[in-house]
Design goal:
The chain is built from eleven helices and no strands. It is mostly helical and about 325 residues long.
Length: about 325
């Protein structure tokens, strides 16, 4: 009975984090962008500092009419938002936030699991673009597929580097084996992993698949109401997952200079929050890349740097052994 309660408690904790953290990132993005760009609108809803802006957005989406195009593949069209969102819930189950049992489920091949499931989330955009019976949506879906193929490889190679350094593919094992002197010689892999993750999430400056000024909103052009809101929620959930994975793999996860027993999760959340702020900062700081620039960055910059990081990791492992 105690085992069942333990599983239920872990699942509830993961589900609560899945419901709360993406909304916190969304609210933070409203406020950070408002300050950085001098946008007054998000500062009015509810009075003090626009605290009710997220509530207002939710009410707005709930009130909008749910429309399915007449020529759309109705079943695939309706299923796509769930396919885009649910993989991030599964990934959160495997990400350790603290030492010991502070993880939904410890997996021996955790790094393989999370990277494989993250790739599934992109299928939601592909399904939505194909099923919408809209040329702009189809073009956005094709751009999504091209971007996934280009940036999946450097992301995998960067993750392989830190797994080599730790000698394990378990996320918990990687954090347990973390040493602070890893940071200087794994920083290239961290930058490659984080950049490739941004591209997989189609976040600016890698938002060519949704380019609102060119293809309306890409694969999501025909979506309205709560289904469109689910795609936005999937984006924010992806930010949480990417930042948490970067913190766990390359920044030591729960390790901190003043970590007390049982409070390691605070460091994990702080690192995740700082990286989420960087994601928002990039959105308001850099213009969108062209499609050719986006592909060139992946194949001529990130892949060579990721391979160089693996070679460096191999040399360091040989030297210290």
């Amino acid at each position: 009975m105690s085992d069942v309660l333990d599983v239920v408690w872990r699942l509830l904790a993961v589900f609560l984090a899945f419901l709360v953290l993406p909304l916190v990132v969304g609210q933070t993005e409203h406020k950070v962008m408002a300050h950085m760009q001098g946008r007054l609108g998000p500062m009015y809803a509810g009075g003090f500092h626009g605290w009710a802006q997220l509530v207002a957005d939710g009410v707005k989406f709930a009130q909008k009419e749910d429309i399915v195009p007449a020529r759309a593949d109705r079943r695939v069209f309706q299923l796509a938002p769930a396919v885009a969102l649910l993989p991030y819930l599964l990934v959160l189950v495997a990400i350790p936030v603290g030492p010991g049992d502070a993880v939904g489920q410890t997996l021996d091949a955790g790094i393989f699991f999370v990277l494989a499931v993250l790739g599934v989330g992109v299928l939601g955009s592909l399904m939505g673009g194909w099923a919408s019976a809209n040329k702009f949506s189809l073009l956005g879906g094709l751009r999504t597929a091209a971007q996934l193929l280009a940036y999946e490889l450097p992301m995998l190679l960067a993750a392989a580097s830190v797994a080599m350094a730790a000698g394990t593919v378990s996320l918990t094992g990687i954090v347990d084996g973390f040493q602070w002197w890893w940071v200087p010689w794994q920083i290239t892999g961290a930058l490659v992993f984080f950049t490739a993750g941004l591209a997989e999430l189609q976040r600016p400056p890698f938002d060519m698949p949704v380019a609102d000024s060119e293809i309306i909103f890409g694969a999501y052009t025909e979506y309205t109401g709560l289904r469109f809101a689910l795609f936005l929620l999937a984006e924010y959930a992806g930010i949480v997952v990417l930042c948490a994975l970067t913190a766990v793999l390359f920044l030591g996860g729960w390790h901190g200079p003043f970590a007390a027993d049982g409070l390691g999760w605070v460091w994990t959340l702080l690192k995740t929050g700082l990286l989420a702020f960087v994601v928002i900062w990039l959105r308001v700081s850099y213009p969108r890349l062209r499609e050719d620039q986006l592909q060139k960055l992946a194949w001529t910059v990130l892949v060579p740097f990721a391979l160089a990081q693996i070679a460096l990791t191999g040399v360091v492992k040989v030297v210290i052994s």
